[in-house]
Amino acid sequence: MGAGRVFAYGAAAGLIGDLLLGDPRRGHPVAVFGRAAAAVERVVWRDHRGWGALHTAVCVGGAVALGAVAERAVRPSAVASVALTGAATWAVVGGTSLAREARAVAGALEAGDVEAARARLPHLCGRDPQALDADGIARAVVESVAENTSDAVVGALVWGALGGVPGLLGFRAANTLDAMVGHKSARHRRFGWASARLDDVMGWPGARLTAVLAALAGPDPRGAVRAWRADAARHPSPNAGPVEASFAGALGVRLGGTLSYGGRVEHRPVLNAPGRGVGVGDVERAVRLSRRVGWLALGVCVAARHITKGRTS
After folding, report:
1. What pLDDT does residue 288 have?
2. Element (H, E) at 195
3. What are the tens digits of pLDDT across the range 47-61?
């Protein structure tokens, strides 16, 4: 069985596994990687970019090497290769958990329990929930769904198509490491620089594909393209900008504006200014759009894998 079919069957099985099972409560492979990365950080941490680069190389390089060894070990068996790709895909994608957490916050808002929604919001993003009212919480959820559609689903599929199991594991390792040390805290401003830049580079193709597919699959394709072109470059993140702008235009809502992270207030540009304010009902619309984008991304990545392998064979 060729590499294209292995990826197609394995990635589809992994997405179906995520849809049916979601993430395990304990022992998730990403959590195991996080503990290992934290242990490495305790050994090598210095307030220096070079030591941070070493930390990134050890952690992400280790994940890629593990994937390469495992892929080589099962290569003689097509069934084992598909199973490994399926398991790796299930381990690195998180679409079901994303949808579940978004709906949990929306459910609390619909019940009028803003405090419960605030308590649940940190499961999705790192914003200060106490600074948000009901509409602000709904906006934060929609933005998180948009950004994590790229980070938790599409980006992984792109790198799986490009690099097989090593690509899947390497992308998730880089993304997880960025969440751990890539922020601008006093401890990680310099140490986490390399992780943040690597995540930007690896997230670039998945973010653009997510933005394209959101425009194609959303209810307002022209609005999505218009918002992407007008507003994406104004966002401080090179990858979140296109995704959030495209989702905003596709759903006809305004995203961005003032937000608070750990007591630090940021004034971000408004995305899709002609749109209306986000309401709790838009959370479900965003989740459904995220689902459609994920399955379309699988189709695109499978086709690309077949085409590239066909040209090199």
Report:
1. 98
2. helix 193-217
3. 999 999 999 999 999
Please give the pLDDT value at position 313: 46
| 3-class secondary structure per residue, 75-90 | CCCHHHHHHHHHHHHH
Is the distance from CB of 151 to CB of 290 less than 8 angstroms?
no
156 with 165: CB under 8 angstroms? no
Confidence of residue 309 (pLDDT cuts 50, 70, 90): low
Does the pTM surpass 0.85? The reply is yes
Handedness of CA 60, 66, 67, 68 (dihedral sign): positive
Buried b (16+ CB within 10 A) or exposed e, 31-64: eebbeebeebbeeeeeeeeebbbbbbebbbebbb
Amino acid at residue number 230 = A
Q: Which residue is listed with tokens 């090598």?
A: 44
**Coil, strand or helix at 190:** coil
Structure tokens at 206: 């998945």
**What are the tokens at 134?**
């009901």
